[in-house]
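Q: How do we represent a protein-ligand complex in a form that can be generated token by token?
A: Start from the inputs.
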Amino acid sequence: MKKTLITLFLPTLLILGACSSDNERAIEENSSNDAIESSITTTSEVKNPEGDGKALVAYFSLPVGDDLDVTTGASVMEANGEYLGLTQQTANWISEELKADTFRIQADKSYPTDIDDLLDVAAEEKSNNDRPSLASKITNLDQYDTIYLGYPIWNADFPMAFYTFLESYDFSGKRIVPFSTHGGSGLAGTVGILEDELSNSEVVSNALSISRNNVADSRQEVIDWVDEVK
Ligand SMILES: Cc1cc2nc3c(=O)[nH]c(=O)nc-3n(C[C@H](O)[C@H](O)[C@H](O)COP(=O)(O)O)c2cc1C
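Then emit the structure tokens for the protein with flavin mononucleotide bound:
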């Protein structure tokens, strides 16, 4: 039976970084089961010809499952007949409003599409302080003055692949605008981590944080926030 959100994240928050032998077993089982893996797209960069090319929306997002019930652990919403991750949908609204280029941060590996298996893999990555390699790179970061950085909260933290992204580029002198979706933890201190990691950048403190339960109805909130921080 699927775990509910409450049972999903309370233990996660209480025992951050812990890696049980159950987790280890699940990962071993998972690594030999390639029937439940998500696919990787390497075409992550989207140019917006209407924009001035000075703002970039870079985000990590991992749609889970194949239904729209966010309360059972799926993190997808349907837009124009397409299933999107919740951070991905938020990123799309931001880039539409700004006419900004977008970049999807993706690990160069497949993650389980089953939420329970994914939680185990993510907990293992975090307890190992992994830096999963990424599927694609931004080749023209210099051209951007402002970078909107989007991520889901995983284990009251960034997904580990997001750390790989942060450590792969020189963000010095850039304006960084964080946005996030979550299942109850809010920003979980991630803006402070960004300030530490990107100490030579201006990290905007007015980060956008949306509960997964509200993302579908949050388009106007996202647009209003963009108008405040841009
Ligand atoms: C592996 C994993 C760990 C998560 N850990 C947390 C957490 O610690 N706190 C929280 O509020 N939400 C947590 N969530 C929920 C996600 O932050 C939330 O569903 C988010 O909207 C997913 O965004 P996405 O669809 O763009 O990937 C977790 C989700 C996953 C898949």
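Residues 40-111+127-229 form a domain with the Rossmann fold fold (CATH 3.40.50.360). The CA atoms of residues 34 and 112 lie 9 Å apart.
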